[in-house]
Write a structure and sequence with these properties.
Layout (H helix, E strand, L loop, with lengths): L2 H10 L3 H12 L5 E2 H8 L3 H13 L3 E6 L2 E6 L1 H12 L7 H10 L17
Antiparallel strand pairs: 1-3, 2-3
Helix pairs in contact: 2-4
Length: 122
Amino acid sequence: METKEATNIFMALSAEVRLDLFRLLVKHAPEGLVAGEIAQILEVTNTNLSFHLKTLLHADLVSVEKEGRFLRYRANIPLMLDIVAYLTSECCASNPEQCRRYRAASAVSQAILPQCDPTDEG
Protein backbone atom coordinates (compact mmCIF):
# COMPACT_ATOMS: atom_id res chain seq x y z
CA MET A 1 0.00 0.00 0.00
CA GLU A 2 1.23 3.47 -0.87
CA THR A 3 1.17 6.35 1.60
CA LYS A 4 -1.21 8.35 -0.61
CA GLU A 5 -3.78 5.52 -0.56
CA ALA A 6 -3.42 5.13 3.21
CA THR A 7 -3.90 8.89 3.66
CA ASN A 8 -7.11 8.80 1.61
CA ILE A 9 -8.41 5.94 3.74
CA PHE A 10 -7.63 7.73 6.99
CA MET A 11 -9.26 10.93 5.73
CA ALA A 12 -12.38 8.96 4.79
CA LEU A 13 -12.56 7.44 8.27
CA SER A 14 -11.82 10.71 10.08
CA ALA A 15 -15.49 11.59 10.68
CA GLU A 16 -17.19 9.88 13.61
CA VAL A 17 -20.23 8.90 11.54
CA ARG A 18 -18.08 7.34 8.80
CA LEU A 19 -15.99 5.42 11.30
CA ASP A 20 -19.16 4.13 12.99
CA LEU A 21 -20.61 3.29 9.57
CA PHE A 22 -17.54 1.36 8.46
CA ARG A 23 -17.35 -0.56 11.74
CA LEU A 24 -21.05 -1.40 11.42
CA LEU A 25 -20.49 -2.82 7.94
CA VAL A 26 -17.48 -4.79 9.18
CA LYS A 27 -19.69 -6.24 11.90
CA HIS A 28 -22.25 -7.28 9.28
CA ALA A 29 -19.74 -8.72 6.81
CA PRO A 30 -20.01 -10.36 4.41
CA GLU A 31 -23.75 -9.76 3.94
CA GLY A 32 -23.60 -6.01 4.47
CA LEU A 33 -26.65 -3.82 5.02
CA VAL A 34 -29.06 -1.86 2.87
CA ALA A 35 -29.01 1.91 3.23
CA GLY A 36 -32.28 2.08 5.18
CA GLU A 37 -30.99 -0.39 7.77
CA ILE A 38 -27.79 1.61 8.16
CA ALA A 39 -29.68 4.88 8.60
CA GLN A 40 -31.95 3.32 11.21
CA ILE A 41 -29.14 1.72 13.20
CA LEU A 42 -26.92 4.82 13.15
CA GLU A 43 -29.88 7.16 13.57
CA VAL A 44 -28.87 9.42 10.67
CA THR A 45 -30.97 10.94 7.92
CA ASN A 46 -30.84 9.42 4.44
CA THR A 47 -29.25 12.59 3.05
CA ASN A 48 -26.53 12.57 5.71
CA LEU A 49 -25.96 8.85 5.22
CA SER A 50 -25.67 9.27 1.46
CA PHE A 51 -22.97 11.92 1.92
CA HIS A 52 -20.91 9.67 4.19
CA LEU A 53 -21.38 6.55 2.05
CA LYS A 54 -20.13 8.48 -0.98
CA THR A 55 -16.92 9.33 0.87
CA LEU A 56 -16.36 5.70 1.89
CA LEU A 57 -17.12 4.50 -1.63
CA HIS A 58 -14.61 6.97 -3.07
CA ALA A 59 -11.93 5.60 -0.70
CA ASP A 60 -12.90 2.03 -1.76
CA LEU A 61 -13.69 1.16 1.85
CA VAL A 62 -17.18 -0.02 0.90
CA SER A 63 -18.82 -1.48 -2.15
CA VAL A 64 -22.43 -1.15 -3.24
CA GLU A 65 -24.72 -3.54 -5.08
CA LYS A 66 -28.21 -2.83 -6.33
CA GLU A 67 -30.87 -5.25 -5.09
CA GLY A 68 -34.14 -4.35 -6.74
CA ARG A 69 -34.88 -0.87 -5.48
CA PHE A 70 -32.43 -1.11 -2.58
CA LEU A 71 -28.68 -0.53 -2.37
CA ARG A 72 -26.65 -2.98 -0.28
CA TYR A 73 -23.35 -1.77 1.13
CA ARG A 74 -20.48 -4.01 2.18
CA ALA A 75 -17.19 -3.28 3.93
CA ASN A 76 -14.02 -3.92 1.94
CA ILE A 77 -12.49 -6.30 4.49
CA PRO A 78 -9.32 -7.04 2.46
CA LEU A 79 -8.58 -3.30 2.28
CA MET A 80 -9.17 -2.98 6.03
CA LEU A 81 -6.62 -5.74 6.63
CA ASP A 82 -4.22 -4.06 4.20
CA ILE A 83 -4.40 -0.81 6.17
CA VAL A 84 -3.75 -2.66 9.44
CA ALA A 85 -0.74 -4.34 7.81
CA TYR A 86 0.44 -0.97 6.48
CA LEU A 87 0.30 0.52 9.98
CA THR A 88 2.12 -2.38 11.60
CA SER A 89 4.60 -3.43 8.91
CA GLU A 90 7.50 -1.36 10.25
CA CYS A 91 6.77 -1.80 13.94
CA CYS A 92 10.04 -2.50 15.73
CA ALA A 93 11.51 -3.80 12.47
CA SER A 94 14.99 -3.84 13.94
CA ASN A 95 13.97 -4.84 17.46
CA PRO A 96 11.69 -7.90 17.64
CA GLU A 97 12.04 -8.07 21.43
CA GLN A 98 10.55 -4.59 21.79
CA CYS A 99 7.74 -5.68 19.47
CA ARG A 100 6.99 -8.63 21.77
CA ARG A 101 6.78 -6.26 24.78
CA TYR A 102 4.33 -4.01 22.93
CA ARG A 103 2.24 -7.04 22.02
CA ALA A 104 2.13 -8.19 25.62
CA ALA A 105 0.88 -4.74 26.68
CA SER A 106 -1.77 -4.62 23.94
CA ALA A 107 -5.34 -5.87 24.23
CA VAL A 108 -5.29 -6.94 20.56
CA SER A 109 -5.39 -10.66 19.87
CA GLN A 110 -1.95 -11.97 18.96
CA ALA A 111 -3.52 -14.01 16.17
CA ILE A 112 -4.28 -10.94 14.06
CA LEU A 113 -0.94 -9.17 14.48
CA PRO A 114 1.91 -9.69 11.99
CA GLN A 115 4.91 -11.67 13.15
CA CYS A 116 7.65 -9.73 14.97
CA ASP A 117 10.23 -11.25 12.69
CA PRO A 118 10.20 -13.99 10.02
CA THR A 119 11.51 -16.65 12.41
CA ASP A 120 9.10 -15.79 15.25
CA GLU A 121 5.73 -17.45 15.72
CA GLY A 122 4.40 -14.83 18.17
